[in-house]
Design brief:
Length: 483
Amino acid sequence: MTRYSAIPKLGISEKKRLRLFLLLVFFTSTNLSAQHWKYPDAVDEKMEQVLNFMDFGAKFPEKMVITSTATPLDLLPVSVKLMLDAMLINTSESVLEATRINTELLDRVENFKNKSAEWGYVKTRLLLNKTVLHALQGEYFSTLWTFYQTFSLLAETMDKHPGFPPLHTLASLFNKGLAATKEYDTKLTCLLPNPIKVNPELMIGPWSKVEKPLFESFNIIFEEKPELPAKWTITTVTQAEKLVYVVYFLNMRYSPKALELLSVTTNSQSPVDAFLFGWANLTLGKYADAKSRFEEHLESTQSVILKRASILGLYYISIIEGKKVTANTWIEKAEKFPDSKAYRDRVAKRELETMHNPKLLKARLLFDGHLFSEAAEILQSIDLNSLGEEFKLEYYYRRGRICMQQQELREALQFFQKALDPTLPEKSYYKAQSAFDSGEIFKRLKDTENARKQYDLSIQLAKNAMREDIENKARRALKEMNY
């Protein structure tokens, strides 16, 4: 007698059901394993050191040593360090050194025989590094070409390995970057690729304890929802993640939130924390604290980034406090530092060469700190007859901006229209922006015809003032209105 005679034979329908069951189990288990995929602990630990700036600025060896047991993921911590050094040391030398190391890593990744999901992911990250490094060196055609290579490899790798979680998180950021670029300059729409399809479920799992939270913080760069920051309670995992949130809060005029995050005691800090402390305090009218932080940042030898911006902060304080120090003195101090590609450093040169009215400047900075009532009080104390034409134009613009933030739309409109008086200086940011803001108010008031006229005027004034940024957003506004 056969031992297995008790096992029944399966009919055709039972076999189909069994195959269906096995397929279901296979795909479910694959999806579950994908959601639980993680970086190896050793990679995450090294990444944590890098993102906490533990070895920031440390020199790379002449030749990278990659062990025979290494995987593509082992290259990631070095790839992240070289980019942090390039962007936060921010000298031509640091960018060239980062380019050298990144090129070597790209050569090394090609030596891996198994072109796995990890391989495609890491190579995509290295190509993304290359894109940013080209941009930092002003190599725009190379930037565009390498961006296409990066995007193509990401899409190709996702087609081959659709269940690999980090690819979906990276693709989501790419898509948001594409949308933001198209919104900023509609002329680029025909040159940019289509978005990549992502699976939100695969973005849920904790594939890295330090990099996934950092990637999620990048998402806020593309959000810019003014109502959110005040409600957020932020707990960051690394200093790099904290840096992203602090810069976001400062840009969104939530200086108290920025200070709250910066004040959390940790064992490390970013090389620009002192500057960020200074700027947050400056916009809150805490000038003594701001001054000490700017001076602390200037004494640091970790990097040159934002040194000129710290000089600018000190210059602003001297103007507000009525100290008789000429602008040339501050310009000379700023020029002692090497050129930096940081936006605030580039703005510093222009601002140091610009005349400032103490009260208008103080109101402007308080506005940037979300202290709208305090800024309005400063402006109301100004004798309008004492102002020259340029400062009078700035006065009307700033009164309008404050009223707009306080939802006093018709009062704001009155100030903006005064700023647009043809007797006031023509080639001015204040006029172009006043026309744009007038368009925004008319749009809120459902007066589309006057909104269109103000946007058209803004485009004209923006061209006169050579402000392509204002011209582009006015054109976008008209396009949204189908004009």
